[in-house]
Amino acid sequence: MGYAAKKTRPAWEDRFARPSADLLLEDCGKTKGKLLETAVERLRGMERVEEQLSWQGLPWRWTLTFTAPSDPTRAFAYVVPDPEKPKIALPLTTEMIAAMPLRRLTKYVRDGVEGARWVGSVAWATWEIESKGQLDEILDLVRRKHQFLTSAN
């Protein structure tokens, strides 16, 4: 009588084993991992934005959470290293959205903002990252949010 091989879970799904950010990005594969790595590097480079790895429950599991002291939303941004569908989430208040030139943003970004789920006064805009072009468009919106927060203080 043999034993079945023990199935190992991806690091992103294992709540009880805290992974490193590097391992999470590696598990996304070469292309998607590189895209998320670029996003993380850009977020790390923003003034007064801090990073932490936290368990967010289902469906986001282990997520890189970026916070800014002046941000009235729960967090400045989230990088969700889902190996199948990596995402970036950007919580936006009504004031932030009103200050952004939505008409000048790309359709991909605009659709994410307009289709965001609202929780109280915060819109949870979320995008799956599939290409460098999409990532650059989203990071432009992230930069605009950062400028909004830093100009308000």
Explained architecture:
The chain has 153 residues and is α+β, with helices and mostly antiparallel strands. The protein has one domain (21-152): Aspartate Aminotransferase, domain 1 (Alpha-Beta Complex), CATH 3.90.1150. 37% of the residues lie in helices and 22% in strands. It is built from 5 helices and 6 strands; from the N terminus they run H-H-E-E-E-E-H-H-E-E-H. The protein has helices at 21-26, 30-44, 94-99, 107-114, 132-152, and strands at 50-55, 62-67, 77-80, 87-93, 117-119, 122-128. It has a 6-stranded antiparallel sheet. A hairpin with a 2-residue loop joins strand 5 (117-119) and strand 6 (122-128). The mean pLDDT is 92.
Throw out a few tags for this protein.
153 residues; alpha+beta; Aspartate Aminotransferase, domain 1; 6-stranded antiparallel β-sheet; 5 helices; 37% helix
